[in-house]
């Protein structure tokens, strides 16, 4: 084949792009008041550990219009580290065309306050239960009405999915996940479908699918179906063992009590990821500062590697 016959049909073709803005669980890494082995080591500048901000991703199918998944308390730092989201076409500008909230937790919503200077209402997609929590127990959306305000859209939990007019080329399918509502939720002790969702991002042009679930409490049939259908799964990597926080003396709750499947052990995340086809890209996100996988020299990190499982980091790009 001659030089000019080189196939270039895909060169520059828009594709589903995801930027990991933050990869840590609530508290970030290091967590401000924590002196666990990981937090101490990263503060001392160990070469085997990288600091991480609280979890959030941004996605686009046309390299221009982006949707933000969750608004982390660290959003301003995250935006500074990813100038693509500031295209500077006008005095006040952003490439973030819509925001999708997967739950009403502090680590996924507080960043909305930092977006208050938006010149229009924020196009906000979340389930009505999340909107209720953010209008009552933690009335963030009410406060935002004094600033930019939001244009709220219900997230349908139907298999047909939905699109966002502001984010062309992407299609979304949300499914309810079993987990807890936040402590300030009026239905804290009666979790309902919609309190937490997982979402599949579908590239309308190529059909490529990425499943995102930073908080996954237990494997259920619809979740497993979404994971099997995906080209890439970006899922809960909060804790390595179910009793990690108890053993450390950091909490009285197990990983599963907190709505997060641990990676190790029976019915753990690794066991499930092993059952996916070899071609599926498997990445953990929302990693708690206590998790030994944060240490790149740890046996736990080596174990993940031997299972073909990646660990998300701030600034990671995923392209499908
Ligand atoms: C969680 O994922 O369990 C919560 O975000 C924890 C928190 O931030 O308080
Ligand atoms: Mn969280
Ligand atoms: Zn720590």
Order of strands, widest sheet: 6-5-4-3-2-1-14
Present as ligands are: D-malate, manganese (II) ion, zinc ion
What CATH architecture label applies? 4-Layer Sandwich
Strand content: 15-25%
Structural class: alpha/beta
Query: How helix-rich are the residues, as a percent range?
Result: 10-25%
Specify the number of helices. 9
Order of helices and strands: EHEEHEHEHHEEEEEHEHHEHEE
The global form is globular
Q: Spans with pLDDT under 50 lasting ≥5 residues?
A: 1-10
Largest sheet: 7 strands, mixed
What is the overall pLDDT average?
95
- Give the N-to-C terminal Cα separation: 27 Å
Which key features would you list for this structure?
7-stranded mixed sheet; binds D-malate; 21% strand; 18% helix; binds zinc ion; 9 helices; single chain; Metallo-beta-lactamase, Chain A
In short:
The protein has 320 residues and is an alpha/beta fold. Helix content is 18%, strand content 21%.
Please explain how this structure is put together:
This protein has 320 residues and is α/β, with parallel strands linked by helices. It has one domain: Ribonuclease Z/Hydroxyacylglutathione hydrolase-like (Metallo-beta-lactamase, Chain A, 4-Layer Sandwich). It is built from 9 helices and 14 strands. The strands form 2 sheets. The chain has a 7-stranded mixed beta sheet with strand order 6-5-4-3-2-1-14. Strands 7-8-9-10-11-12-13 form a 7-stranded mixed beta sheet. A hairpin with a 5-residue loop joins strand 2 and strand 3. It is globular, with a radius of gyration of 19 Å. Manganese (II) ion (MN) binds next to loops.
């Amino acid at each position: 084949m001659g030089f000019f016959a080189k196939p270039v049909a895909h060169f520059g073709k828009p594709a589903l792009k995801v930027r990991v803005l933050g990869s840590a669980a609530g508290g970030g890494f290091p967590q401000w008041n924590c002196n666990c082995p990981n937090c101490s080591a990263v503060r001392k500048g160990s070469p085997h550990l990288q600091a991480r901000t609280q979890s959030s991703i941004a996605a686009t199918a046309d390299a221009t219009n982006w949707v933000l998944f969750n608004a982390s308390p660290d959003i301003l730092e995250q935006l500074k580290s990813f100038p693509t989201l500031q295209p500077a076409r006008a005095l006040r500008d952003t490439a973030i065309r819509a925001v999708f909230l997967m739950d009403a937790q502090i680590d996924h919503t507080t960043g909305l306050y930092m977006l208050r200077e938006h010149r229009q209402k924020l196009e906000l997609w979340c389930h009505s239960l999340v909107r209720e929590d953010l209008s009552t127990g933690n009335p963030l959306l009410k406060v935002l009405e004094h600033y930019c305000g939001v244009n709220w859209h219900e997230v349908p939990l139907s298999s047909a999915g939905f699109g966002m007019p502001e984010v062309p080329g992407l299609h979304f399918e949300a499914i309810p996940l079993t987990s807890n509502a936040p402590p300030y939720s009026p239905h804290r002790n009666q979790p309902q479908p919609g309190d937490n969702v997982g979402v599949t991002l579908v590239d309308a042009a190529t059909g490529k699918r990425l499943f995102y679930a930073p908080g996954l409490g237990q494997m259920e049939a619809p979740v497993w179906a979404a994971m099997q259908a995906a080209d890439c799964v970006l899922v809960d990597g909060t804790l390595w063992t179910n009793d990690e926080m108890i053993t450390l003396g950091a909490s009285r709750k197990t990983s599963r009590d907190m709505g997060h499947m641990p990676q190790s052990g029976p019915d753990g995340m690794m066991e499930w990821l092993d059952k996916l086809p070899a071609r599926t890209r498997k990445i953990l996100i929302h990693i708690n500062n206590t998790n030994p996988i944060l240490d790149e020299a740890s046996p736990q990190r080596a174990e993940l590697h031997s299972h073909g499982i990646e660990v998300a980091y701030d600034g990671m790009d995923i392209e499908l």
